Amino acid sequence: MRIFVTGATGFIGSVIVRELIAAGHQVLGLTRSEAGARSLAAAGAEAHYGNIENPDSLQRGAARADGVIHTAFNHDFSQFEQNCENDRLAIMALGNALQGSNRPLIITSGTGMGAMESGQLASEDLFNPQHANPRTASELAGAALTDRGINLSVVRLPQVHNTVKQGLISPLIELARAQGVSAYVGDGANRWPAVHISDAARLYVLALEKQAAGSRYHAVAEEGIAFHTIAEVIGRGLQVPVQPIAAADARAHFGWLSAFAGYDMPASGTLTQQRLAWRPQGPGLIADLEQMRY
């Protein structure tokens, strides 16, 4: 198939592109720059110029493809709510281009959407539309398109990692470097799920090929790693002290990350492994954190 990939030059998208090509698919990758086009060409993909804030460019790309994988997202958390709204609009634009066909659309969300409250093990079969995270907009858009007959599935991501980047943990490292301390909230027992980037990319390809409309998948290799364990590894890597922060002081220390730093968000990938025969094989989060260059 010829697959249109948004975020094709990004952290996750670039690995998905390689996985798609290795699986025998052709790739049309979204890019806004000549540098991005050169990167795509080097990977064996074709460039499509546009961006996620231009719905027309997304519709044109989707119209040229047999399926779509949407991973592009603006991770500027100072404008997080607006970025979530832009993602909703992007998903609707992609869906409009696929209306009337059975071409698959895979969108991206977070594993937290599958839990009704903090500490509950998130499940693929649950969706919490009242979740405090505004990323719910992405899945609400997906549900609306599914109701219109679009062949849409959702891949929910935890902390996606290698030895270069680790999702929200990367800004935690920079914060610890700047503050001279690696901190956690309270006893730090709250948990974050994780997956190696190679396993996440392979899951997108499996979801695309499965084409099970309305499905939700969790790219979860590790259900929950205690935050204090993550903080301790960062502390060792940066050679800075590790210490607890009271919940009342979390905002002052973590800034925008305080919304996540104390949140307990374990997630299961059991149903995904059963339904797609997906078996994570990459290194664990702590192994990657221990091997990265600080």
Describe this structure in words.
With 294 residues, this protein is an alpha/beta fold. Helix content is 41%, strand content 19%. The strands form three sheets. A seven-stranded parallel β-sheet has the order 3-2-1-4-5-6-10, sandwiched between helices. A three-stranded mixed β-sheet has the order 7-9-11. Strands 8-12 form a two-stranded parallel sheet. Helix 3 (55-63) packs parallel to helix 4 (80-98) and helix 4 (80-98) packs parallel to helix 5 (136-147). The longest helix is centred in the N-terminal third of the chain and has 19 residues, at 80-98. The N and C termini lie far apart (40 Å). The model has no long low-confidence stretch (mean pLDDT 96).
What are the SSEs and their pairings?
Layout: E1 2-6, H1 13-22, E2 26-31, H2 34-43, E3 46-49, H3 55-63, E4 67-70, H4 80-98, E5 105-110, H5 136-147, E6 152-157, E7 159-161, H6 169-179, E8 182-185, E9 191-196, H7 197-210, E10 216-218, E11 222-226, H8 227-238, E12 242-245, H9 250-254, H10 258-261, H11 270-276, H12 285-291
Parallel strand pairs: 1-2, 1-4, 2-3, 4-5, 5-6, 6-10, 7-9, 8-12
Antiparallel strand pairs: 9-11
